[in-house]
Amino acid sequence: LTGICGETEGQEHEHIPQAVGQYFNAVTFPPSASYSSREEHNKLEEVRTMAKLKNPGIVQYNYAWIEKPPIGWQVQADYDMIKSVGAS
């Protein structure tokens, strides 16, 4: 996970398994953070722009993050959830 202004490339965040869903400890960083790629920078700039929109006809956009979970981390959790609701 990376905060909206994250400077956490390579930094690990703790995964906290819960009975329902998945939870992570995350960190928020100041807007002066650096970016790992131009694409990531552009996406975060878009988020900042959307967060500035204030209009009764627009749903307020408050938070965003970048997730970079380990490959396959969700597979077992999905399997267990599907099994618990009786789907096959």
Account of the protein in words:
With 88 residues, the protein is mainly alpha-helical. It has one domain (15-84). Helices cover 28% and strands 7% of the residues. It has a two-stranded antiparallel sheet. A hairpin with a 4-residue loop joins β1 and β2. The two termini are 31 Å apart. The relative contact order is 0.19.
Molecular shape: flat
Low-confidence residue ranges:
1-10
String of helices and strands: EEHH
Gyration radius, rounded: 17 Å
Give the strand content.
Answer: 5-15%
First-last Cα distance: 31 Å
Output the structural class: mainly alpha
**What is the share of helical residues?**
25-40%
Largest β-sheet summary: 2 strands, antiparallel
Number of strands: 2
Number of helices: 2
Number of domains: 1
Report the average pLDDT across residues.
69
Sheet with the most strands: spatial strand order:
1-2
Oligomer: single chain
Q: Which SSEs are present, and which pair or pack?
A:
Elements: E1 15-17, E2 22-24, H1 38-52, H2 75-84
Antiparallel strand pairs: 1-2
Keywords:
88 residues; mainly alpha; two-stranded antiparallel sheet; 28% helix
